[in-house]
Amino acid sequence: MKVNPYNTVIFLGCLTLVVIALWKLFIFWKKDKTYRFFYGFLITANLVIIQVLLMDFGIQKSYSWILAFFIPFQYLSPVYFTAFICYYLKKEELYVRNRNYLFLPFIGFFVLYTILKINVFLDYTWISREVFTIIHTEIDENSALTFNIILSIWNLMIIHKYENTLGRLSFNQVRKKTQWIKTIVAIFVTFNVIWLLTIILFFIREDISGHFPYYPYWILYLLFYFTFLYLGSKHLNEVAERKESEEEAVQKAIQNFRMSGLNHMFSEEELELIHYDKPSQITGILSYFSTSLFDKNKLEDVLWDIVENCIAYLQLEDCIIYIVDESKNVLVQKAAFGNKNLGERSILSPIEISMGEGIVGQVAQSGEYECVYNVTYDERYVVDDISRKSELAVPIMVDDKVVGVLDSEHSQEGFFNEHHILLFQLIAKLTAKKLAQINIKNTTNITNDNLYFKELHFLMKEAKIYRDSNLGLDSISKMLKISSNYLSQMVNKLSGSNFSDYVNSFRIDDAKSKLKDPKFSNYTILDIALEAGFNSKSTFYSAFKKYTGISPKEYRETP
Fold this sequence. Notes:
Strand order of the largest sheet: 3-2-1-6-5-4
Keywords: DNA-binding, Membrane, Transcription, Transcription regulation, Transmembrane, Transmembrane helix
InterPro entries: GAF, GAF-like_dom_sf, Homeodomain-like_sf, HTH_AraC, HTH_AraC-typ_CS, Tscrpt_reg_AraC-type_HTH
Strand content: 5-15%
Structural class: alpha+beta
Domain HTH araC/xylS-type: 462-558
Largest sheet: 6 strands, antiparallel
Mean pLDDT: 79
Number of helices: 21
Pfam families: GAF_2 (PF13185), HTH_18 (PF12833)
Radius of gyration: 33 Å
Order of helices and strands: HHHHHHHHHHHHEEEHEEEHHHHHHHH
Protein name: Helix-turn-helix domain-containing protein
Low-confidence stretches: 257-261, 440-444
């Protein structure tokens, strides 16, 4: 078949789509992967048609080498579309878990294409022209259609399961949330049916040949692809902006909780510095720091916790905590992170530094921090385990008296900046508060106005994090930037129950509201249990009966 107005328009339309999608892919590559698969699908789907039309143009007769670049994109585009749906619905684990299986048809036919190309260049030495034609025109196309239909059905199942997770919304809200993506999948199912009818037409009408019967089908595809490109890009941008706005609101609320929790620890000037610097990172570190020290009542425990957890969290190369020995008038290494740490809270070749000696001794004597850009040019520098380039030393002061020094070195020249200085000063101040508590035999109490508990309650009520069946002490402690031990004690004291019962109380309330809501009458009890965050029917029944005294079925049937 030669060049004609129809295949020329289709070719130019597909080529235009590929160029636009490639440009969009380049722009949005670093954003959410949803964009990558969206544009990747459009590119590969149109390359399928472009390759077929190049064959129609007879380009292989003049440039046979171009066949080497023909790839079975028809097995790649449906995979990208499935990946797009999974990432759009935040079900990416489904795609990742089945990714290897999804790519098997593409890999298989890529190998087959390679063999066929070599066979053509060898003038059909391995496979006859007749067999080659059957593979190229029938087996290839029929298997591609079958693969598309299977993935379309699977996509609909993914959407249906996603809708079941939206139990907190009304049916109208659920439909509104998934209508866009369901419409797209439905259109693809329709296109698959048209594709199947076109293939059947070839069997009914033996006088028909070539790709001309596909032209109306491809024109419909083109119209849809341009619409999908425009409306899809617009929709994804709206979803991304809405998500960023929601996340920003939640993070702002959490940030306010953490900042208010530091009000009683720092002066107004220090809090202003926190706001000015990197509030989210700083408050997260300080929150974890202050709570990880909660149950530490021995000097050794406090100091090692600082270097093992808090300083390590800053991703520094090393950190040493010196404590003043007044009887000898020296600074003694008490805890270390990095090369000096032998494990099991033991320091490699601990050294003593006289007051006023070296950078650390100078800081202990003056009570002022020192940040040295390059210690090579500082005569005061004392080499410990290995020689490094920069150093930051901050005094730890209790009642205006230096009791120790927080010291860190780095192999990079000028590594420490204003951010490090601020953090070290704040951590030193928190350390001093804890050391003062130890000295007066006093420990921090968890009171009813505990801000971390308020933050946890906020995340449960507003963000509904209890719906995650994998939620545990470790995951929440990381979320709140506090130690898991502190979290456990806090929940036990302020909720009057253990952590598991506390979380399950929210899940049971969620399930109870759905069991009585007519909008969820078609939901099974297991569906409601899974949506509330339980991972099995038996666990849900046990917890429900523990809290209500009756089974979920009895509760649902009770007027």
